[in-house]
Amino acid sequence: MTDLNPHAKHMADESMVRTLDAQAHAIWPQEVELIRRYGLGAELRILDAGCGTGEASWRLAELFPRAQVLGVDILDIHLTLARERHAHLAPRLVFENQSIFELPAADGAYDLTVCRHVLHSIPHADRVIAELVRVTRPAAGCT
Q1: Nearest Cα residue to 49 out of 98, 84, 94, 5
Q2: Fewer CB within 10 Å: C terminus or N terminus of the chain?
């Protein structure tokens, strides 16, 4: 099989970490309004798939103060940075090394799944989308 993360070296660069932080800061005001439209409850299980340094993960943890948030990525350097930067939100916010191509979660395990800045840069995005759909609980009345 081909490399499932062909941009790993580029993504691990410190300049990319700064860029992703700036992008998250700029985009979050619009994203939060979209997320609020879902009308989600307070006690949620949230998955941030391809979380990088946790820029969306910590924002989701703050937006939903009773939620359990799991950020997953395959770049240990990003996960280490995420854990260091956002330790004050543990144990509600956890970061783990997991591949979004094959998540160990049960079907429908998460109430909300986000995947930002990932699908355009990996091969077989259709497989990842199918996996994210699998682990996300369908909304009431949706199939």
Answers
A1: 98
A2: C
